[in-house]
Amino acid sequence: MSKAPVEYLLHLADNAVVLGQRDAEWCGHGPILEEDLALANVSLDLIGQARLLYQLAAARMGNGATEDALAYFRDDKDFLNYTLVELPNHGALVGYAAADRDYATTIVRNFLYSALMVLVWDALQKSPDSDLAAIAAKSLKEARYHLHHAADWLVKFGDGTEESHARAQAALDHLFRYTEEFWTPSAVEDAAIASGAAVDVRTLRAAWDAIVADTLAEATLKRPEVRGYIPEGKHGRHSEHLSYLLGEMQGLARAHPGATW
Amino acid sequence: MNTPALKDWPLWEVFVRSKQGLEHKHCGSLHAADAAQALHMARDVYTRRQEGVSIWVVPSAAITASNPDDKGELFDPAADKIYRHPTFYEIPEEVGHM
Predict the structure, then answer these.
(1) pLDDT by residue (tens digit) across A91-137?
(2) CA-only gyration radius of chain A, Å
(3) Superfamily of domain A6-255
(4) Phi/psi zone of residue B87: left (φ > 0), alpha (ψ -120 to 50 degrees), beta?
(5) Does residue B96 come out as left (phi exceeding 0), alpha (psi in the -120 to 50 range) or beta?
(6) What are the residue ranges spanned by the domains of chain A?
């Protein structure tokens, strides 16, 4: 019975927890009440996925490892998430603290990520690692909804007003290059593929391209040309934004280790 | 969370069916740009605690409602017609349970 390596579980969990944290920044600040709840739901789904994966990883690590220790007591260089998911909810070249959140950025990112994850979870639900397969089956339903939600908004923005179109295209131009990271396996992914329990993301590229092409066509948005730069978040080499995000996410747990309420 | 968009977005009434066989019940309303989005939002706003297995959304504008000022003429005349309730009648023994 092949089992997925712990680092691969962490890669999946870190993606989910970091994007969950980013989406949660909108909680109480959503553009409208209904959407505030919708995005909080997405965020809670992602944090739920991360918990299951951290729990599984902790159980396999032993030595007193816990889901909380994995989420709150690892540093940025230990996180194996895609750079895409750690970027702020606003465009490039904006001062970090003062910038207004941009909903198009949030929606485009959720779209690009969930378009990948519906394919990843679908493949992983057939994994011989039955614990991982069970998490994948649960997460797939959630990811399908996240994709639906993001694609729906992307079409409304792209095929909406002049301003909503321009902002959606700008977000796409900013974020699309970060998807290049999906397609070049890290050592962690190579080991996971070799274990037989993981999915080789490269095999999902054509299907991902098709989802993106369909939605962008409906949204009247242009797929940006990207080449050259390949982000390395999943290797533990992150943008400056992750440590700020972790500072906020981990601060309380580190100030009061072991606190319960 | 106040936004001019709400002025442009129609209001929808949401009906949720709790389980197979039960009827859809009105549970609230929300703003959405179109019917598909209203369904999505109804899912997120009204079924977060597993309340439903089916959702209907109806444009609030499509509902014709009675005027509260007409309450007297519409409903009060029924108040003294207790013979319209089945309990008004005595059922003969031989009819049995109805």
Answers:
(1) 876 655 456 889 999 999 999 999 999 999 999 999 999 999 999 99
(2) 18
(3) Ferritin, core subunit, four-helix bundle (1.20.1260.10)
(4) alpha
(5) left
(6) 6-255
Alpha-carbon distance values, B97 to A13, A110, B87 (Å): 63, 61, 13
- The residue type of A18 is V
Interface test with B, best of A26, A27, A29, A35 (most B CBs within 10 A): A35
Angle at A44 between CA A215 and CA A102, to 5 degrees: 50
Q: Say what the pTM is.
A: 0.88
Sequence-distant (≥ 6) Cβ neighbours of residue A98 within 8 angstroms:
none
Residue A49 is encoded by which pair of tokens?
A: 């996925």
3-state helix, strand, coil in chain A (%, to 5): 70, 0, 30
Contact (CB<8Å) A156/B37: yes
Q: Find the CB nearest B37 among A37, A41, A152.
A: A152
Q: Are residues A128 and A119 in contact, defined by beta-carbon separation less than 8 angstroms?
A: no
Quick: pLDDT tens for A10-34: 999 999 999 999 999 999 998 888 8
Contacts of B47 (CB under 8 A, 6+ apart): B16, B55
Q: Which two tokens stand for residue A52?
A: 């299951």
Chain A residues within 8 A of B3 when measuring between CB atoms: 31-32
B49 touches chain A (CB under 8 A): no
Q: How many of the other CB atoms lie within 10 Å of CB of A102?
A: 19
